[in-house]
Specification:
single chain; 222 residues; 7-stranded mixed beta sheet; 6-stranded antiparallel beta sheet; 15 strands
Length: 222
């Protein structure tokens, strides 16, 4: 049975068999915004939601050492934050992104992940101590309007879920008003093992560079 995470909860990655989860997917699922108007609210309108799932890797000194974020981000703006161009793989191929989804689910939750990062912990270099996962909204909406955003860790492939290990539902709430980024959670080492902590903090960051700096500044020593 999958672990249903709550904010701030920390878990190890050991399965019921006692073995550690080493090769898995981190997927995020979110919904497009639905509004109604016209006569008696009978006209339904869907607003596409373009969220970007990213990952930031920190070394044993809690300094950024690698990343995954969209190659579509403008390099001149990234350079203003001292950041290199975006890419879809990191750390010896230990993390790989499946690509961009610019709309979100229409017509309700389809149960499928919109963007996925595959993780192979056996390939993560020894100097990597933490891996943060986060979302940035490329549109003008905020997270109080987006009907749902969920992160889950599962065994299988991006196209086939074999078994869900843990899930974390970040529901829309009034406190997310004016928040355009969401720090989902982090993987971190404890000796030879890895653990996961659910974070779920929404921020007012409007660009990925701000979120990268925020994680390094405020979350690296959790």
């Amino acid at each position: 049975m999958a672990i249903i995470l709550t904010k701030g909860q920390r878990i190890d990655l050991r399965k019921s068999s006692g073995t550690q989860l080493r090769n898995f997917c981190v997927g995020v699922n979110w919904g497009a915004i639905e509004t109604r108007g016209g006569f008696l609210g009978m006209v339904k309108k869907l607003i596409a939601v373009d969220l970007d799932l990213s990952a930031l890797l920190l070394d044993t000194d809690a300094k950024p050492c690698d990343h995954i974020y969209s190659p579509l981000y403008r390099q001149d703006i990234l350079a203003q934050f001292g950041l290199p161009p975006g890419k879809l793989d990191a750390a010896n191929g230990a993390l790989r992104h499946t690509g961009d989804d610019r709309t979100g689910d229409s017509g309700g939750d389809d149960g499928l992940d919109n963007e996925i990062i595959t993780v192979n912990l056996d390939l993560v270099p020894s100097y990597v101590a933490q891996i943060f996962f986060f979302l940035n909204n490329c549109g003008k909406e905020d997270f109080s309007q987006i009907p749902y955003a969920k992160i889950r860790m599962f065994e299988g492939t991006p196209s086939r879920v074999r078994e869900v290990f843990a899930s974390y539902n970040v529901a829309a709430e009034p406190g997310f008003a004016n928040k355009r980024a969401l720090i989902l959670g982090r993987l971190y080492r404890r000796g030879n093992d890895w653990r996961f902590a659910a974070i779920g903090d929404a921020t007012e960051d409007t660009f990925v560079g701000q979120t990268v700096h925020r994680i390094a500044r405020e979350y690296s020593n959790l």
